[in-house]
Design goal:
The structure is a single chain. The chain is mainly α and about 300 residues long. Among the domains are: about 120 residues, Arc Repressor Mutant, subunit A, CATH 1.10.10; about 80 residues. It contains 9 helices and 3 strands. A 3-stranded antiparallel β-sheet has the order 1-3-2. Helix 7 packs antiparallel against helix 8. The protein is elongated and about 70 Å long.
């Protein structure tokens, strides 16, 4: 009954919402601008058989999530309602003999044609978007204790190994299935996902080696934004000339370092006997206590403190 009612509603140009309220005019298929989530849900319906929203979620978790993402169950039902309004999908309720009332969804001919046009479209699909939370933490590693960084990477390796096993299990189930040719391309996508996860494990393990090497060189973060640079406690002499006080010095990738108040702006801090030093009146430089003009006055030591 529900499928026939949906067809009748489409012919009348309107449909009922999920709550039973009257909907607006049905947009035509050619004018439909759907988000990627809608196309993904419609794509799940393009394989043989009818499926409930819950079954679509399980199918997305066993395939889509390994190379794209898996929509939440609420997103799936929202898109199913949208697809019904467009005439791209139909639904029917299970009969009274079923232990639980379910609503199963299927793609329509109009929906399959629209999906094929979108999948075969000439537009550039664009580059993949990478958002790697672990790498963001590594990038800020100078604020984190080295041991904590190692723990984060180790946790990532373990989690990725678990995902790799799940991808292999899904691929094995699909290989055993005696299904139509339409399952072949999901198999290709899952094999790519398997290789990507294998590479991710290798990259993370290599990153552990990089962090160990960095820590051995004394470049690990300590959670204090390099307290030596901030306080100059390791610098010898009365003056602390740290890397941060060199306004022309460049950090990683040419990022200028912050200059300390009162610096001259030179890449090298001049010694006390430099005749060009700003503020000198006798051309010989400011003499330190107990020295005479012309004596060599050692420049202030930076204590070997480097920036990030």
């Amino acid at each position: 009954m529900a499928a026939r009612r949906t067809t009748s509603q489409r012919q009348n140009g309107s449909t009922a919402s999920a709550d039973g309220d009257g909907g607006g005019d049905r947009p035509t298929g050619g004018d439909a601008e759907l988000p990627p989530t809608a196309w993904a849900v419609l794509g799940l319906l393009s394989f043989p058989g009818e499926r409930t929203g819950y079954e679509l979620k399980k199918w997305a978790d066993a395939s889509l999530r390994f190379f794209y993402w898996s929509p939440a169950i609420s997103q799936i039902y929202a898109e199913l309602r949208r697809l019904e309004v467009l005439g791209y999908a139909t639904s029917r309720r299970s009969g009274p003999e079923a232990p639980r009332t379910k609503r199963a969804y299927a793609i329509t001919d109009e929906g399959r044609a629209a999906l094929a046009a979108w999948a075969d479209g000439g537009r550039d699909v664009g580059p993949p978007v990478l958002k790697h939370p672990l790498l963001l933490r590594i990038w800020l590693g100078h604020l984190t204790a080295p041991g904590r960084l190692r723990d984060l990477v180790a946790e990532h390796v373990a989690r990725t190994r678990g995902e790799l096993k799940e991808a292999r299990d899904a691929l094995a189930r699909m290989d055993r299935a005696d299904g139509p040719r339409s399952w072949s391309h999901p198999q290709v996508a899952l094999r790519w996902s398997e290789r990507r996860l294998e590479a991710e494990v290798g990259l993370a393990e290599a990153m552990l080696e990089d962090l160990a090497e960095l820590e051995a060189r004394g470049g690990g973060g300590d959670g204090s934004v390099d307290a030596r640079c901030a306080s100059g406690a390791d610098a010898s002499g009365d003056a602390d000339v740290s890397h941060a006080s060199r306004p022309d010095a460049n950090g990683p990738a040419g990022v200028p370092q912050a200059s300390a108040p009162g610096t001259s702006g030179s890449a090298d801090v001049p010694s006390a006997s430099d005749p060009d030093r700003k503020g000198d009146t006798d051309g010989l430089g400011t003499s330190s206590p107990g020295t005479r003009p012309g004596d060599h006055v050692p420049r202030a030591s930076s204590g070997g403190v480097d920036g990030p």
